[in-house]
Amino acid sequence: MEHGELLGVVALDGPSGTGKSTVARRLAGSLGAAYLDTGAMYRAATLAVLRAQVDPTDAAAVTEVVQRARIGLSTDPGAQATTVDGADVSAEIRGQEVTTAVSPVSAVPQVRAQLVAEQRRIITEALDTVGGIVVEGRDIGTTVAPDAALKVYLTASAEARAQRRSRQDSTDLSATLASVQRRDAYDSSRATSPLRPAEDAVELDTTELDLAGVQAELLAMVSERDMLKVPTGSGRER
Questions:
Q1: Residue 18 annotated as binding?
Q2: 16 is in an annotated binding site
Q3: Which domain holds residue 90?
Q4: Residue 5 near residue 228, CB atoms below 8 Å
Q5: 166 is in an annotated binding site
Q6: Domain annotation covers residue 50
Q7: In this structure, are residues 48 and 106 in contact, taking their beta carbons and an 8 Å threshold?
Q8: Minimal CB count within 10 Å: which of 4, 155, 166, 211?
Q9: What domain count does the chain have?
């Protein structure tokens, strides 16, 4: 990937169903930046745990499995792929079994420490090679990249998020709403890196915004923070 327009880190946090993944990929693609979906990393770890037939609530056993697993993520927003031990699991990690188990697995402190270290390595590599990266998850601005130049916390009503998830996954709306609320409660109450906005994050409510509207807001924030590469010949190159 060639050096793009974005300079630095854009951290996108927020609960499930706010459109983080889609808008983060589009933002990264439009700016020639790298993209990191930290949620996919936790889902891959969860799949490894399920394949090992380990109880997702058994912290010690979960830690052992995740430490052995080889998890890989593409940072190209136009060619996303997630692997576990060399095999592409991009579709499998989005299944209901993984969705149900990912919260307890991702709450294990040792798992978070291991994956956060890898996420930081990927961010550093992207900054060195591409110049900028859009990172999305639930603890990016607070834990993974606390020095990010732009931190945005995406929100939306639980009902709006459930409707989006229900349309996307073709699931029952009431069941999806219950799942969204359960995930919110679990993620926001865990002891390690709970879901919450960073103190210096900009909160953006996406309830009434479509994808284009959210992306426009983010692009404006990136520009306001002087995070774009100045064109050669402008006299302000950097």
A1: yes
A2: yes
A3: 8-224
A4: yes
A5: no
A6: yes
A7: no
A8: 211
A9: 1
